Amino acid sequence: MSKQVVIIGASRGIGEELVHQFAKQEDCQVLALSRNSKQMSEVFSEYPSVTCVTFDLDGDKVRETAERIFAGVDKIDIIINNAGKLVNKPFLSLTAEDIRSCYQVNVMGVFSVMQAALPKMSAGAHSVMISSMGGFQGSVKFAGLSAYSTSKAALASLTELLAEEYKESGIAFNCLALGAAQTEMLEEAFPGYQAPVSASQMATFIADFSSSAHQWIKGKIIPVSLSTP
Ligand SMILES: NC(=O)c1ccc[n+]([C@@H]2O[C@H](COP(=O)([O-])OP(=O)(O)OC[C@H]3O[C@@H](n4cnc5c(N)ncnc54)[C@H](OP(=O)(O)O)[C@@H]3O)[C@@H](O)[C@H]2O)c1
């Protein structure tokens, strides 16, 4: 039976590259989710193994929507919570809406997705959270990123909590705290900065990690960074 991979935040940047990489593997079906399914359907039109579905982590009834989407697959072998919302503003300028939407996409939405996904996952499955070095304890911190980086820290913590709660299930939960990779989000966070890693290179690491590391690593938060930021 082919491997079922779910990638959330698949329309651009690292998520788009992840879809390309999994779609080229034999025996791999990919469910690609983001708000922009029209763009995804165009970009991934060459792959019969990729299904693109509109999904908004900041929409209505996120858990129910995810349950409806996952009802279309028998099982989930790999789920990569890659979607992310950046808010880059001085602390006193942050509005309640900035903070809410950042936490909704980066944290609350992931709770809902995992509540919908876990009934489809069993021993040998792997959940990978995509966090940031900004949310990694002891790392260099940057002004303007308080909402974003604390939300990414929550995602790391959620990984450890899920690993504990599901320790008897054989499902692995890991979290990658990414350093800079060249994407639109990086340009928004650090205008003009040139990352030492492309989105495609970062996706290669994440795809390999998601496919095999769960045999050796469970419940861990792993920094994946060549640079600061
Ligand atoms: N690039 C870096 O240097 C870096 C460093 C550390 C961590 N990260 C993390 O790595 C992940 C990927 O980053 P990236 O740089 O590739 O970002 P990106 O280019 O901004 O892409 C973000 C993806 O998230 C999706 N997304 C955003 N809001 C969404 C929502 N409400 N519902 C569903 N999907 C949503 C976007 O799709 P739509 O707009 O189509 O919905 C897009 O596919 C993020 O979690 C980010 O925080 C990146």
TrEMBL record:
It comes from the Bacteria. Pfam families: adh_short. Keywords: Oxidoreductase. InterPro entries: NAD(P)-bd_dom_sf, SDR_fam. The keyword Oxidoreductase applies. Belongs to the short-chain dehydrogenases/reductases (SDR) family. This is SDR family oxidoreductase. The lineage of its organism: Bacteria, Pseudomonadati, Bacteroidota, Flavobacteriia, Flavobacteriales.
